[in-house]
Amino acid sequence: MQAFALRFHHFGLASRRPEQTLKFLKGLGHEVAMQVYDPLQNVNLWLCPHSSMPTVELVAPAEGQGPLDAILTQSSESIYHLCYETEDLQNSLEALKTGGFRVICVSPPKPAILFDDRRVSFYMIKDFGIIELLESR
Amino acid sequence: MSDIENRTRDVMAKVLQVAPQDISPDISRKNLPAWDSLKHMNLMLALEEEFGIEFSDKEIADLSSLHLLVDALRTKHS
Questions:
Q1: Domain that holds residue A34
Q2: For labelling, which of A28, A29, A67, B58 has a CA lying 20 to 30 Å from the CA of A13?
Q3: Tell me: the pLDDT tens digits for A49-87?
Q4: Is A126 in CB contact (< 8 Å) with chain B?
């Protein structure tokens, strides 16, 4: 049992040219299980599972400002977050802090259209990077 | 210039990847494009480490200029 009660869900891959990125993912054997525009984040999303490899969430900027503006400054693509599922968000956050990790909330919980309106939130973990936490129902 | 301001400017220059001489006294997130949301998080973490303090979530959201940062750090250090 791991201390934070988190279960890996997917990698978050940002891309300015999602068509080419999708072409590569499909070449690897990923499928597109769902594609949506998320108005709360102003991004286009593709959920790309695979029969034997981790799921990739492809995230591309939509028109106007969005959360990827700061991510895609140096490069046209970047694996920029790891997503974990949690049964109890507050419990997992407390466990992270109790474990001595500095946790900064980047984006508070909000419903995610890609995950059937389950809530997602983003955090910067010092010495690890950005994680997305996907809440169970 | 105070020691706190000097140390703050040094950390800003390193994290925001700008030359120290480009950090003017009135620098803020509004007038420095390099100070984006991701770099802001890294800046706050770097300042926490430099000064051995911790910012609240509200401070992280609100401290958006050199002036505000130095004021907050002075208060936390006093």
A1: 6-135
A2: B58
A3: 999 999 999 999 999 988 898 899 889 999 999 999 999
A4: yes
